[in-house]
Amino acid sequence: METPEKQYQPIDCNYYDRLEAWATMQTLCVLSFHDEDGHPQEVTARITNLYTLNKAEYLQLDNGLVLRLDRLLSVNGIPLPGVC
Hints:
The chain is mainly beta. It is about 15% helix and about 45% strand. The chain starts with 12 loop residues before the first helix and ends in a 5-residue tail after the last strand.
């Protein structure tokens, strides 16, 4: 049975700007995040797209993975701060 997704918590605006810069510069990033089951994961990839869908923000990586931004723990060793 599918559990409902917790309500999206917007990330810090300055951190979002950083994500946009890494995407624009095509920087290879190390992303740490919680998967859908709450387990910590890490992946190295380039951010290819940032977008909003159903009032939640997402990023897409060049390996095809899509992450909801409030699941991020850190990118390139920089921890995600509080909400905007």
